[in-house]
């Protein structure tokens, strides 16, 4: 384990957590598609339940294909241990509910993924946990919002869909002065481009549905952090809420992770080209992409990230109507939510992903009605740009007519 961690990340994407199957020599990990495991004897079964002997019992409590995935992601994020879940939301809910209880308070960076917002502001509230949105890009505002009962600080960086960055080191330092656990949703970057634990975060969560799976064919989640906390997550919320990943989906993520390095490099390269194209277009008022030198957070991006990723958003001149025309005119880009796919996906946060967030909260979080989000895929950049160009021409024509 320690030997492999000295190798570069691109190598570890392929080799971490992997060894040939001891029985057959199979290099690809076997899919242990089983719900339960035979005990050699009654005594062995009893010892496994008592925790006196390690080994598998039942797939909700652990499975070798899940374990291989957990070992790999823990290595890539630089954490002690990991727990795999059946979705990103199961991972986020699993970590949050393992760490807080009635009477506790959570701070979260706003904007945040719409369902995370709902989980914290609606579901957790019904169990006596309060949550407050804060601007994670302003550490002094975060510090002012801390209460004596604040247990958790949860944020995404970059945020979705406004691509605002939070300084992980600064936030972790201030949170730790108040004994607050820091959880970073690293979905948008993937461990190839950003490793929050290296900057002081305690726990990383992922929607593995996105870049980790990478092919738009699986829904899954991951949490990485200290062994003691991950053991608590496994033995409480994973075991008792039961939001586990299936062995086949774990295998799909192991497969996806093998190409993470080359995919993230290509996503980043394509997104930068698309961002530069959009930035000079007369119908585009603003482009949000941390890799643009014009981005106000370019320096922080260079300090904390190893690349700028595949997600960007932009504001069209003409607001909501222009956005609708653009989404109706694209041909190669697919109108769909989600991100991190091989295919370029385009969506309109105000009517899709962030529709559950109240309009005032959306506006306060900088999500204007004309904002369009693009998850730049792995197609040839020239083809993506040509499609946007013809769709923007349609927006221009509609505005001249209107
Ligand atoms: C998609 C997403 C989630 C939720 O993940 P699921 O796998 O859809 O449950 C959480 N956070 C971010 C940043 C996401 O993009």
Quick overview of this protein structure:
The chain is an alpha/beta fold and 402 residues long. 43% of the residues lie in helices and 14% in strands.
Task: Supply database-style keywords.
402 residues; Aspartate Aminotransferase, domain 2; Aspartate Aminotransferase, domain 1; 5-stranded mixed sheet; 12 strands; binds pyridoxal-5'-phosphate
Please explain how this structure is put together.
This protein is an alpha/beta fold. The chain has two domains: 4-30 and 62-257, Type I PLP-dependent aspartate aminotransferase-like (Major domain) (Aspartate Aminotransferase, domain 2); 261-401, Alpha-Beta Complex (Aspartate Aminotransferase, domain 1). The chain is built from 16 helices and twelve strands. It has helices spanning 2-5, 9-15, 42-50, 64-77, 88-99, 114-126, 139-144, 168-177, 190-193, 227-241, 247-258, 260-279, 298-304, 319-329, 359-364, 381-401, and strands spanning 81-85, 105-109, 130-134, 150-156, 181-185, 203-207, 221-225, 284-288, 311-316, 334-335, 345-347, 371-375. Strands 1-7-6-5-4-2-3 form a seven-stranded mixed β-sheet, with helices on both faces. The mean pLDDT is 95.
What is the residue-mean pLDDT, rounded to a whole number? 95
User: Which fold name is given in CATH as the topology of the largest domain?
Assistant: Aspartate Aminotransferase, domain 2
- Low confidence ranges: none
Tell me the name of the CATH homologous superfamily of the largest domain. Answer: Type I PLP-dependent aspartate aminotransferase-like (Major domain)
Radius of gyration: 22 Å
Helix proportion of residues, in percent? 40-55%
List the secondary-structure elements in sequence, H or E. Answer: HHHHEHEHEHEHEHEEHHHEHEHEEHEH
Question: In CATH's first tier, which class of the largest domain applies?
Answer: Alpha Beta
Bound compounds: pyridoxal-5'-phosphate
- Spatial shape: globular
How many beta-strand elements? 12
Please, how many helices? Answer: 16
Q: Termini, distance in Å?
A: 63 Å
Number of domains: 2
Main beta sheet: 7 strands, mixed
How much of the residues is beta strand, in percent?
5-15%
CATH architecture of the largest domain: 3-Layer(aba) Sandwich
Strand order of the largest sheet: 1-7-6-5-4-2-3
> How does the helix and strand content classify structurally?
alpha/beta
């Amino acid at each position: 384990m320690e030997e492999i961690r000295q190798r570069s990340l691109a190598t570890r994407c392929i080799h971490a957590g992997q060894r040939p199957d001891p029985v057959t020599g199979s290099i690809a990990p076997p899919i242990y598609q089983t719900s339960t495991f035979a005990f050699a004897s009654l005594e062995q079964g009893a010892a496994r339940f008592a925790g006196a002997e390690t080994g598998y019992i039942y797939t909700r409590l652990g499975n070798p294909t899940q374990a291989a995935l957990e070992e790999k992601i823990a290595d890539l994020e630089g954490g002690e241990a990991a727990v795999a879940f059946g979705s990103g939301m199961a991972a986020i809910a699993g970590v949050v509910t393992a760490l807080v209880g009635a009477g506790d308070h959570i701070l979260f960076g706003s904007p945040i993924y719409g369902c995370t917002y709902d989980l914290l502001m609606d579901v957790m509230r019904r169990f006596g946990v309060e949550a407050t949105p804060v601007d994670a890009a302003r550490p002094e505002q975060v510090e002012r919002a801390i209460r004596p009962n604040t247990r958790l600080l949860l944020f995404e960086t970059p945020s979705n869909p406004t691509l605002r960055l939070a300084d992980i080191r600064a936030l972790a330092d201030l949170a730790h002065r108040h004994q607050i656990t820091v959880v970073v949703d690293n979905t948008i970057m993937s461990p190839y481009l950003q490793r929050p634990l290296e900057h002081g975060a305690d726990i990383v969560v992922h929607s593995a549905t996105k870049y980790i799976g990478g092919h738009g064919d699986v829904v899954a989640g991951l949490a990485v952090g200290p062994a003691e906390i991950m053991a608590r997550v496994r033995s409480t919320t994973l075991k008792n809420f039961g939001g586990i990943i299936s062995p086949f989906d774990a295998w799909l993520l192991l497969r996806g992770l093998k190409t993470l390095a080359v995919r993230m490099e290509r996503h980043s390269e394509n997104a930068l080209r698309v961002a530069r194209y959009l930035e000079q277009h007369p119908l585009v008022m603003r482009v949000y992409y941390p890799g643009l030198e014009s981005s106000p957070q370019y320096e922080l991006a260079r300090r904390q990230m190893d690349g700028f990723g595949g997600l960007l958003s932009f504001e069209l001149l003409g607001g909501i109507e222009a956005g609708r025309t653009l989404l109706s005119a694209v041909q190669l880009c697919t109108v769909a939510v989600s991100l991190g796919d091989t295919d370029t996906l385009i969506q309109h946060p105000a009517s899709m992903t962030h529709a559950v967030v109240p309009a005032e909260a959306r506006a306060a979080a900088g999500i204007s009605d004309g904002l369009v989000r693009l998850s730049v895929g792995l197609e040839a950049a020239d083809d993506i740009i040509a499609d946007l160009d013809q769709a923007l021409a349609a927006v221009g024509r509609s505005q001249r007519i209107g």
